[in-house]
Structures are given as structure tokens and as C-alpha cells.
Amino acid sequence: MSLYVRLGMHLLYYGTYQEDFLQWPSTVKHLKEQSEKMGREYDDPKSKEHIKPFMATFGLQSSMFEMVEPDSDKYSTFNEFFGREIRRDARPIDEPDNDLVTSSPADCRLTCFPTIDLATRYWIKGFGFTIEKLLGGKLELAQQFDGGSIVIARLAPQDYHRWHAPVSGTVMETFDIPGAYYTVNPQAINEPGTLDVYCENRRSVMLVERTCSKSTIAVIAVGAMLVGSIKYVGGCEKAGTQISRGQCLGAFYYGGSTVLMLYPKGEVALDEDLVKRSTTEKYPCETIMKVGWRVGSGGN
Question: The pTM is what?
Fold first, then answer.
């Protein structure tokens, strides 16, 4: 990200006045309208002309062989290209025979924290973040994650923009939470005193009963600025659906986005190298990950 963009985001997201401005109804309405407008434009066949410049900007041509449809000329709209499907064999999961392993849900920039307290100390600096707010005010559900772990998978616009199951299990429930369309860039997430982007943005929560432990896991797809839609694939969001680790669950359409995973206390031991990078005292950082790469283990 350029210095000018970073400076602009700092000026927009940092400070009491800016926080008030971002929560003005007119601001929230404007971001919503612009995101939905962009979504409509990128669903129009005319948007196909944006595909090649986008690929050139982010150097995506070399990765197209991994896609179910590798020929960019065959996508009918920009959004169809943006939510393109990857071949399953292009993202094999680590330790496929070990049900205790948890995986990265996306090609992403990942941070992970053994406790929510650590997440708010090192990464989530927005004012008032709580698991209850993240889950739409469902107190009893939030209490299941007291003392639990959180994994944050941020998808940049140039990333493959579908998300996959981090564990195997049975879908218990899926519900949507309406919200705003703020950016999920770290410049907004990491600024102390800013608004709480994860709890403000619209999101979809999938609750999964994990096969190996029968514990409840939450997989939360968070929309962001210019994300036109969050869509599940193949009816996987229906209660009772069996899902397997590495299986594609859904797609975001245009823009950066984030997938959050919540694990109950003691359910998973996150891999030490990932935790170390996420909790470096002065400069915590994200780790570049791919779908299916190991994030931790546990749940026996």
C-alpha cells in the first residue's frame, strides 16, 4: 500500500471526530450504496473489460492454471472472475488423515491468538470489541467461546476470494448480521481508539459442530468496503450439512474481506510460529497463508 493511501486511511479512521464521522447515518448509507453500486457494475457484462487490467496490476496470470476455468477470457463478468473457483487439487490440506488439525480457511494474510485478550492487545484495537458483539449480541453463544482462541484470515483484493472449511463437522446454524461496509485493512483494525470494524461490518456466521470433539466452532465471513456480496456455495450453509476440512464454503465478490474463526477454550493449540509473529511486541505481523495450510491442532 502506498504511503498516501496509508496516510489517508490513518486520517479517516483515527481519532474521535473521525470515529463519529464514520458512524454518521449518512456516511454508513454512502458506503453501503457505493459497495452495492460497485457490486452491480461488476455483475454487468461490460465489467469484463476490467479483468485483464486487474490481472496485470496484481500479476495474477501465473496463478490462473490453478483455477477450474484458467482462461480469463471465458469469464462473463468481473465478479465472476473475482469469485473464481480453484481446483481442489491445487489446495491440498496439510495432514489430511489427522482430524485434529485445523487449517487456514483462505489464501490470506493470517494472524492468530490463543486468547481474545491477546488479540485485542496486539491486533484488534477498535473500541469495544467483544465476542458477544461480533456474534450479533447472542450472549449464550458468546459464552461458549470464553477464554477461547481466534484466527483472523484477511483476504486482500488480489487473493483468491473464496473461503474454505478450517475443520470437518456438521453445520448447526448459519445466520446473517447486517452492518456497515468499512475497510478491513490493518490500518483501520490496528489503530487504537478507532471504531470496531469487525463488529460494525455486515457478516455471516456459520456454527459448526466439529467431528472430532463435538465442540462448536464459529466461522465468520466479514464483508468490507466495496464487497458487493457474501455467497455460500452448494447449499453448504443449511443446518445438518456435513462439511470436510478444505471444502469450499463460499465466495466474496469484489473487495478485501476477512474470515474469522472462533474456537472454545482448550479446543486448539495454535502453531507457535504463527502465534509468535502475531504477538511480536513492537510490530505484530500477518503470515501469508494458503487454503489448507496447518494453523493448529487439538480437539481430542
Answer: 0.85
